[in-house]
Automatic annotation (TrEMBL):
Annotated keywords: Amino-acid transport, Cell membrane, Membrane, Transmembrane, Transmembrane helix, Transport
Localisation: Cell membrane
Highest taxon above the source species: Bacteria
Protein name, entry field: Branched-chain amino acid ABC transporter permease
Species for this entry: Paracoccus salipaludis
Length: 301
């Protein structure tokens, strides 16, 4: 492997890991607090991407400044996360928190299937693409490689902002303290006056917004096709399981490991590129069944 190919694989892996983390952190946050593995998370990612592409294309068609596509991504992600995430939590999940985990999994899988078909009804099966942010930022030269600034600078920066903002929110705000209290002991938190239902709602909406944001930021880098949500939820679960379900900082590290390993596999051995994330997950779980950063007795978020 030449130095140029190694540098290209590293930059590809960094960009891919950033998107993986944005989606996986929402999945692991929801599991860490609610104890539910939300299969519908993948559909929220896909709908966030489609909504961003639709809004971005409209902005460009109307002659607005192309830089407005960046705040447009955030608007689309928040709209999808709040509206869809809020409806899912209020109408469905609130009714099954005390039910068997298998039922919870089946319900979120049913929501996933409904949303997948809803995507086909609204956007059809033709690929969507919105490259404006990629074009606006142009290219930079790093490690001797000309690379898009959006992927190598903007995406990692966005992932870092999400990571540190979420850490600050959980550790230094009143709502974050309530989330941590409910996570540790819901009954004790309720006894001291914390509204656990409100905490669950807020947590699910925040996690849904992260999924939609991941889709929004992925829009300029890939064609949007049906089934993309299914692929992302499996990859996100691999990241979350490798880190340890409920581990936010660990999700960042495992996303980086999986993203870079997958990228190098593309250049060195393309035939194993697809299975690389799952191979890493299996190897980690064989040695550490609770994940790289998971603990047996204490569940942290």
């Amino acid at each position: 492997m030449t130095m140029n190919i190694a540098a290209l694989a590293l930059l590809d892996g960094l960009a891919y890991a950033s998107l993986l983390f944005l989606v996986a952190v929402g999945l692991t946050l929801i599991f860490g607090v609610l104890g539910i593995l939300n299969v519908a998370h993948g559909s929220l990612y896909a709908i966030g991407a489609y909504a961003t592409a639709t809004l971005g294309q409209w902005l460009v068609a109307q002659g607005f400044n192309p830089w407005l596509t960046f705040p447009g991504m955030i608007v689309a992600a928040v709209a999808v996360g709040v509206l869809l995430g809020g409806l899912i939590e209020r109408l469905l999940l609130q009714r099954i928190y005390s039910k068997d985990p298998v039922l919870q999994l089946l319900v979120t899988f049913a929501v996933f299937m409904i949303l997948e078909n809803l995507q086909r009804m609204i956007w059809g099966v033709q690929p969507y693409f919105m490259s404006t942010p990629l074009t606006v930022l142009g290219n930079v030269r790093l490690l001797g490689i000309n690379y898009t600034a959006y992927q190598v600078l903007f995406l990692p920066a966005a992932a870092l902002v999400v990571l540190f903002t979420l850490r600050y929110f959980l550790r230094h705000t009143n709502m974050g303290a309530q989330i941590l209290a409910v996570t540790e002991d819901r009954e004790a938190a309720t006894a001291i006056g914390i509204n656990a239902s409100r905490v669950y709602f807020m947590t699910f909406v925040i996690g849904a917004c992260f999924a939609a944001l991941g889709g929004a930021l992925a829009t300029p880098t890939t064609s949007l096709v049906t089934g993309m949500g299914a692929n992302m939820i499996v990859l996100s679960f691999a990241v979350a399981a490798t880190a340890g379900l409920g581990q936010i900082e660990g999700a960042a590290i495992s996303a980086l490991i999986i993203g870079i390993a997958r990228s190098f596999a593309v250049y060195l051995s393309p035939e194993i590129e697809v299975i690389m994330p799952y191979l890493i997950m299996v190897l980690v779980l064989l040695v550490r069944p609770n994940g790289l950063f998971g603990k047996e007795t204490v569940r942290k978020i």
